Each structure stands twice: as structure tokens, then as C-alpha cells.
Amino acid sequence: MKNKTSFLPKEGEAQPSRCPDNSAFKQQRLPAWKPQLTIASVLSCFFLTGAFCITVGVCLVLSANSVREIQIDYSDKCSDCSKLRENSSNWNKECQCSVNFTLKEGDIFMYYGLQNFYQNHRRYVMSRSDAQLLGRNVNRSYCAPFSTYRNGTPMAPCGAIANSIFNDTIDLFYNHNSSVIQVPLLKTGNSWWTDKNVKFRNPDSYNLSSAFAGTARPPYWQKAVYLLDEEDERNNGYVNDDFIIWMRVSAFATFRNLYRRLRRVRHFAEGLPAGNYTFHISYNFPVARFKGRKHVILSTVVWSGGSNPFLGIAYLVSGSAATLTGFVITGIHLKLRKKKTYFQKQ
């Protein structure tokens, strides 16, 4: 059989226009590593992979189970407010309720949770304007059906996601002896750095209210976007942490979002002490129409994050599958080797 170089033109002969150069790369003469897969190497790969995944999975599951959290469903405990919010004409009426509970000490992160709220619907996910959220085209948006009002006034921010923002206000109080102390909580620093500094920007203007001139708040909002945080001007507009966190939609109907973090000062320098606490809730977000539920979650965190065993279970399943595959291959190999030995004896 002729080798590849025999097909190349000799010196003095005309070289075809489409003939590749006589190089190691173009003539496929580069050295290559071709592993020889033996039964020992294949089984070692499967068993080592299985052992690694199972070990990591066990560590992640144990870590997730060590997280201490308390979850309070206040959908029924604030039933009067829930009935009030079902009538849209009562949007400007305030309604508050309180929930008492007992807590063990710990460094606390506060989350709000929603159940049966489908943020993954295609039309819902697409109803947003990333250009507007970057501070461009404030007066022009493409996020129907919440783009403009009937008189042509554009909404800022526009879209179904922004319009349905979670707007309950939750304050935490510590009942210490005969006094009631409000727990200091951090409003900022809760969103992803890339979201806060890259994906969301306020329009360039000397005054934030003038930057949104000619726009109107979404129909379900109680205040304009530049008034979301009246205590901190740097946490207003599109860079408001609560707004940024809400705009990162969930893939599941039941989810939780980070709401506040504990500020370690005075009585809470070492975390939340054990004792009796009270949630004061300004009830604004209706859930009865879509048969949803609302929760407040107080949770600690560990090196692997919060109380979510999914990643650990995924590692355990992968490791078990790799180990089981290794045993199956071992059984098949032993069976075929016995047959080969039997025929050689014949």
C-alpha cells in the first residue's frame, strides 16, 4: 500500500492547485497519543469517579443538613390583609399584621418565599427591556403588555417581571425582657456583584427624578422607581437591590429570594440571640388569586451555602451510577473471560 507522500507531486512536476502543503500538520503526520483502553484502566476510572462523587455528595448533604432555619407561612396569619388586597381598588390602603415566633441563636439571613408563582412562563420571562435596565431608552420600551399607558406614557421599569415585584415590607423585632428592639438588617449587598455593577444602571443625570421624567411607575407599584429606598439614595432606581434580585427569575414555581442580612451591632454583634421575636409585615403582595403562599425564612449559612441538598444528591446519584456501571462492566468481563477459557480448552 502506498504511503501518503507517494501521492505528492515530485520536483519539477506541476502541483495541483488544491493539493495541501507537504507539512506534518496538513499531511496528518503529527504525533498523537492513542490510549489503549484496558479493562483495568476502564474499571479504575469508573470506581475512582464513583468514590469521588459519593464522597463529595455526602459532604454536601451533611453540610446542607447542618443549616438551621425557620420558615413561617404568613398567608393565613394575615388573612384580613389578604382579603383587602384581592380588591385592586384598595391598592393605596395600608394593611399590617404581626407574627410572633421563638428563635434559636444564629447568624441569620432573611428570605421571602413564594409558592405556586410561575416565573418561568415564556411570555413573562420575555416581558422586560434589558436596554432600559442599563439606563438606555428610558422613554422607549418593548416589553408588552406593560410597556406604555393608554395615553402613551412609557412605564419605567417596563415589563411583567418588574410590574409584579414582591413589595411586602418585613421588619424583625426582638422582645428582650420588657422592651422591644428592632433588629438592624442590611438592605444592600444582597444582590450579585455582576447584576449590581454590570447588568443594571441608572440613566445618566444630575438628578434621578429628572432622569425618569416623562415616565410613570408600573400599574401595580405604589411608588416611582427613583423612590424605592428613601433612606439611601444609592439604592434607588434600577440599582435597588430588592428590584435586582426580583428581576433574576426562578426556574421553579416555589422559590425563595434573599431579602435582608443581619447587621452585627450592639445586641446582635454575635448574631441573633435566642428568644422571642416578632415580624411586622406590611402586606402588599396578593397571592390568593393564583392559590399561592408566602413565607418568611430565617436561615444560617455554611461553607456550601444555604439549605439546599440538591447538589449533594446529584453527586450521590452520579457517583452511585458510576460505581454501579463499574460493577456491571466487571461482571460482563468475568463472564466473557470464562467463555473464552472454555472455548480454548475445547
Spatial order of the strands forming the largest sheet: 1-9-3-7-6
What order do the SSEs take from the amino end to the carboxyl end, as H and E? HEHEEHHHEEEHHHEEEH
| Average of pLDDT | 87
What kind of assembly state do the chains in view correspond to?
single chain
Number of strands: 9
Low-confidence stretches: none
N-to-C span: 38 Å
Radius of gyration from CA coordinates? 31 Å
Task: Give me the number of helical elements.
Answer: 9
How helical, in percent, are the residues?
25-40%
Largest sheet entry: 5 strands, antiparallel
Overall, the morphology is extended
Content-based structural category: alpha+beta
Query: What percentage of the residues does DSSP assign to strands (E)?
Result: 15-25%
Family: Belongs to the CDC50/LEM3 family.
Main location: membrane
Pfam family, one: CDC50
Keywords: Glycoprotein, Membrane, Transmembrane, Transmembrane helix
Structure overview:
This protein is α+β, with helices and mostly antiparallel strands. It is 29% helix and 16% strand. It has nine helices and nine strands. The chain has a five-stranded antiparallel sheet. The protein has a four-stranded antiparallel sheet with strand order 2-8-4-5, with no helix packed on it. Strand 4 and strand 5 form a beta hairpin. It is extended. The model has no long low-confidence stretch (mean pLDDT 87).
